[in-house]
Amino acid sequence: MSDPETAAAKTTPLTGLHRELGARMAPFAGYDMPIQYAGGIIEEHLHTRGAASLFDVSHMGQLVIRGDDRALALEALVPGDIAGLAPGRMRYTMLTDEAGGILDDLIVTNVGGYLFVVANAACKEADIAHIRAALPGGCVLEELDRGLVALQGPKAALALAALVPGADALPFMTAAPFEIDGVRLAVTRSGYTGEDGFEISIPSGETERIARMLLDLPEVEPAGLGARDTLRLEAGLCLYGQDIDRTTTPVEAGLAWTIGKRRRSEGGFPGAGIILDQIASGPPRRRVGIRPDGRAPARAHTTVREVGGEAIGEITSGGFGPSVGGPVAMGYVAAGASDVDRPVEVVVRDRPLPARIAKLPFVPHRYFKGRGG
Amino acid sequence: MAELRYSEEHEWVRVEGDIAVIGISDYAQDQLGDVVFVELPEPGRAVAKGEEAAVVESVKAASEVYAPVSGEVVEVNEPLADDPGLVNREPTAGGWFMKVRMADPGEVEALLDEAAYDSFVSGL
Q1: How far apart are CA B62 and CA B46, in angstroms?
Q2: Do A247 and A289 share a domain, yes or no?
Q3: What residue in B sits closest to A43 (Cα-Cα)?
Q4: Domain around A76
């Protein structure tokens, strides 16, 4: 199969390792990425929920913002509370536009002397230009050329502690520097699977060596983007470009929880008028879980309608949930029809199939909130 | 067991009298990955060669399965409803999709034999 995208695809520090491990590679956001390894998506998904998996997420943008006014400068672009982020803490937020739409979703970490931002691969070039254009004179943004891996699963902490003593004590959504074998790592307790886990930023030239050390741990197997997608879908987490984009607001997407009290009262971010109004009066539509009754998956762009009636919305992500053991989906429906357990129909290949509005996540989150807290 | 003939759309056919047993090739199931759902035609439906006759869904995507010969669907593989993974485990045996009473058995002759299909696949 000749794919013009493959010829020009960018690589990550782990591309060679993926090939050695027998990964099936495909272009994703301009990168040649592993979709799955020999065991397949379901096996990798279940291993992540049962033990620990290593994902290459080096395609994602790793940005650093420096300068005295960095937090307030970024707050002009996002509704999250960045100024109130203590050193070593991180937060999920999004770049919004004047219409209240979402330009990208980000994880922002206050490393201490600077902000560390992880952005989506497909958006990072636009994000960099967008943020740079808004930074005041004393602030600079640079893109780091580093590898990024995610170690995810209930045994991730046990596994990582064998190499990085103390990393297992980090609570969810915190960050700290560590060292393995003389290599400085930026470790965060975070992820995109709903499981406990870590994301580890590594100097490019050392990424493969560290990844091999992680893969040598008895609990850890490699997993590809296929499993990453089924895991995040079951965990009810949004994929930018599918579940959120310029046409969706954070409130419609169920992400108002990322907007703290101070930002709600002060505003001062793009689209604040619309977003704060939707928080106060309710959005016209809401992102919900959708659970088809049968076995047929209902995928993105499937129409959701009232039983025997009018269309009320559309699925934005859908497929098979290996831990659920059946089809799962999420999408937007009219706010008045978004109550959990409401019977609806999903129109798959022109046939209406019974489904229900479901609570998200489909699989409970199992984040590590810290010891003795 | 009778030999298999293949289409370039990766269906296989095994002829049993005037019946064509139809499934998807080992190459196809491997490319699809874990199969999670199979939608089969109603028995009694007439299908034309090249017409979409079934749908196979993997974790990643839905793919059409085309009738490699024309005729009437006389039986479908009911166990696939509860165990779609049969398509991965036994693509050319227990993972068959449907049986078609052929309108023109000569159509099978136009399909690839095993060696030709293998050579076709190795060029993909």
Answers
A1: 22
A2: no
A3: B34
A4: 1-282
Who among B36, B55, B124 is closest to A320 (CB)? B36
Single out the residue in A253, A282, A311 at which a domain terminates. A282
> Which residue of B39, B60, B81 is in closest CB contact with A226?
B60
Same domain, A301 and A197: no
pLDDT value of position B1: 54
Same domain, residue pair A151 and A21: yes
- Reading the block at residue A7, the tokens are 């010829």
Contact between chains at A320 and B55 (C-beta distance less than 8 A): no
pLDDT average, residue stretch B106-123: 96
Statement to judge: residues A157 and A292 lie in one domain:
no
Mean pLDDT, each 10-residue run in order, chain A (373 residues): 60 98 96 96 98 98 97 98 98 98 98 97 98 97 98 98 96 97 96 98 98 98 98 98 98 98 98 98 98 97 97 98 98 98 97 98 95 57
| CATH number, span B4-107 | 2.40.50.100
Whether residue A173 is found in the same domain as residue A219: yes
Please give the pLDDT value at position A1. Answer: 41
Report the C-alpha gap between B96 and A67 in whole angstroms: 64
Angstroms from B20 CA to nearest CA on chain A: 26
Q: Are residues A200 and A122 in the same domain?
A: yes
| Structure confidence at residue A2 (pLDDT) | 43
Nearest in space to B59 (alpha carbons), one of A223, A72, A359: A223
